[in-house]
Structure formats: structure tokens, C-alpha cells
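REQUEST ID: PR-0412
SUBMITTED BY: lab tech R.K.
PRIORITY: routine
TASK: structure prediction, single protein chain
INPUT:
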Amino acid sequence: MSQASKIALALEMIENAESGLRSARQILNEITGGKKSKGKLIETAEGLSKNLKVDEGEESIVEGVFDGQSMLGPDKKSYPVPANYASKSKLIPGDILKLTITPDGSFLYKQIGPAERKRIVGTLTYEDNQYKVIANGKAFGVLLASVTYFHGEVGDKVTIVVPEDEEGEWAAIENILPKEDEIDLDQM
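STATUS: complete
OUTPUT:
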């Protein structure tokens, strides 16, 4: 076996070992950490204001907490947040939103309190019918709308925005990093 083949085999074995460790950490996180962070979001949502009286011709306003896919209101209801809005606004778990329900039934969202956030780099994966980014030994779910907008592919290096404490199961894609073979230094 050539030296290049041995290096390629060793790199593949390392990738497989790292993948196994990430999966094990994710399972442990789901057992121990996922419920805890969701509980914090519910607690935060319960402390927000609500104006749920829907009278003919009047709009209603509900404040809530984004959980990665929807908004949790103080009434313990889950309100659907359009994936395109969440993706474009780079919403992360813990962001405070204001929902205005218009007299015609339209939902208008506005981010009114961003959560503390940070950026990390990870690898885009696809498992259990869900795109995820593996970063810092944890798998973060990402919205399909973000993956398609950035033309992401499994294996891409991705910059994601996560809560400062990295708790929670969701992240927002900030950008897809160019592959090394796509960078043409002669054009720089």
C-alpha cells in the first residue's frame, strides 16, 4: 500500500471515529440537555406579554420566544414562524419575537429581542430526514430554507449562529464556506 493510500485510509478512520463520537455526544445531549434548554425557553415565554383578545377589526399582539422552528407564546401555544423569515433573519433559539395577528388573520413577525449569540464553524450533514451542522461536538438542526438558499451540500463547511451558551438544538446558517478547490488565488 502506498504512503498516499495509507494517509487516505488513516484520515477516513479518523473521520469515522469523530463521527461516532459526535453521534454519541448528540444522544447524550438529547437525553440530558435538550429538555433543559426547551424548559428555559418555555419559562422565558411565560414571562412575556400577550394581548390575545381577537375582536372584529382589531389586531392582536403576542410576544414569544423562538425555539428554532416556531414561536412559543406566554399562553403555552406554539405559533408557526415561516421558515424563510426565520432563515433570512437568522433567528436562533431564545430570540424574542412579536407576532401581530391582523384582522384578516395574517401573521406578521418582528424580532424584538435577540438572544446572545456567537458564530462557530461546522460540517453540514443530513440524517433522520433533517439537515444538521456538526460543530463543537454537537449536532444543531438547521432549516431547509437556509440550506437551499445557500445551495448547501452535505460535507460543506458552514458558519452557523448559535446561542452564546450553545444550548438548544437549532442554529441559523450564516454562510457556506467555499471549498478549498473553489478558491482561485490567481483571481485574487
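NOTES: The longest strand covers residues 117-127.
REVIEWED BY: pending
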